[in-house]
Specification:
five-stranded antiparallel β-sheet; EC 3.2.1.10; hydrolase; TIM Barrel; five-stranded parallel β-sheet; Glycosidases; glycosidase; alpha-amylase activity; alpha/beta; 12 helices
């Protein structure tokens, strides 16, 4: 006798091959939808179908084990159950669904097309860019912003051709995005706002994770015992087996652990950032909470929080909302690889997003058609008479070809 667990050993996987199990799941979904729930975020859904084999399998890691992915991800036949679930639950209720599903581009139409299983699916191609294909957090994937551009643009183009996308920079399974994408010495409000601009103006529905709108950062834990996450403990052990010294292994998991995004929300300067009055909070509060907290940012018009508000207003309550919601995504090529550029276009209306993704000043010549500055993360725009734009480190500027004068 045995059971399969794809995640922690205290969490056995359900046997979806059993029709009674599936019926019980559909009954639970319908219970909530019948009460008027608008929809679901569906977690790890592509893991439900298993390829069951007996035998001894070759190890692919220092722990002597084999990665389970090839036996549980995107297995043939899963589409039968996904369609069955949609027909029995989501479709009759006309509910919104967003799936945590790393869907290959060639199969995206099945998932979010006109008759797809879900309303939208998340894109992992850039949020997991720092994780090597082997899944070993403690190793460096050596990603570059060229890789980021390729991954984001490819997914945007494929998704808009098939259906609707779900955008995110961080979630409960990710370290904080600012630490992932920006060098430590350049983590500041400018670089945080640049990431917000990049993500919020893409085509799709943006999902903002708690604390992201404040620019919350990773926490540095003093020892492994400070971490709660099972996967973090596993990665630390594998790092030691790989040959890393304990201090190196701790540094690696401090950088990549998902407990970074699970630390208490930083509300104000009170005890435990006002998350709890207890002396034993389940995870340590990031010590930077006296300076980085919601209360301080609410009244600061230049804060990261208020910058997110400005971006949301552009999408929801401005003359540019139709372009930013429904407009086509168009990548813009430039000889300067240090600048990331894209357009949102609807008929003859265009919004241009310009991002300096480096810590050095860059230049870009702005076409004369762009006469309106929608938003920028610095206090001013450095544009001369020849329309040469000077972009400071991690500067982001959004321009439009309608709506006013530059």
């Amino acid at each position: 006798m045995f059971y399969l667990h794809a995640f922690t050993k205290k969490q056995p996987d359900l046997n979806w091959e059993n029709e009674e199990v599936r019926e019980e799941i559909y009954a639970m979904i319908n219970y909530w939808l019948d009460k008027g729930l608008g929809g679901f975020r569906i977690d790890a859904i592509l893991n439900i179908k298993k390829k069951l084999e007996y035998g001894i399998f070759e190890s692919d890691g220092e722990d002597g084990l084999a990665f389970i992915g090839p036996w549980i991800l995107n297995q043939s036949g899963i589409e039968v159950w996904l369609k069955e679930m949609r027909e029995r639950t989501f479709k009759p209720h006309n509910s919104m669904t967003v799936a945590e599903a790393d869907v290959p581009n060639e199969r995206l139409d099945e998932y979010i097309g006109e008759d797809g299983y879900y309303s939208m699916v998340f894109d992992f191609s850039y949020t997991d860019i720092d994780v090597p294909e082997t899944g070993e957090w403690f190793k460096d994937s050596q990603w570059t912003w060229t890789d980021m551009r390729t991954n984001i643009f490819t997914n945007q183009l494929v998704t808009q051709d098939k259906g609707w996308g779900a955008l995110y920079l961080e979630n409960h399974d990710q370290p904080r995005s600012i630490n992932k994408y920006i060098p430590e010495e350049w983590i500041n409000d400018y670089s945080k706002k640049m990431l917000a601009t990049l993500f919020m103006l893409l085509r799709g529905t943006p999902f903002i994770y708690q604390g992201q709108e404040l620019g919350m950062t990773n926490i540095e834990m003093a020892s492994l015992e400070d971490f709660d996450d099972v996967a973090t403990h596993s990665q630390y052990k594998r790092a030691l087996e790989y040959g890393l010294a304990p201090e190196q292994a701790l540094k690696a998991v401090n950088k990549r652990s998902r407990d970074n995004s699970r630390t208490p929300m930083q509300w104000n300067t009170q005890k435990n950032a006002r998350f709890s009055t207890s002396d034993n909070v389940w995870l340590k509060v990031n010590p930077n909470y006296p300076e980085l907290n919601a209360e301080a940012q609410l009244t600061n018009q230049q804060s990261v929080f208020n910058y997110y508000h400005q971006l949301i207003k552009l999408r929801k309550n401005s003359v540019y909302k139709d372009v930013l919601i429904y407009g086509q995504f168009l990548p813009v090529k430039d000889k300067n690889e240090h600048i990331l550029l894209y357009e949102r276009q609807l008929e003859d209306k265009i919004v241009l997003v310009i991002l300096n993704v480096t810590a050095t000043e860059q230049e870009y010549y702005v076409d004369e058609q762009y006469q309106q500055v929608l938003i920028n993360n610095y206090e001013d725009v450095l544009l001369d008479q020849s329309r040469k734009l000077r972009l400071r480190p991690f500067e982001s500027i959004v321009l439009a070809n309608y709506g006013g004068q530059l």
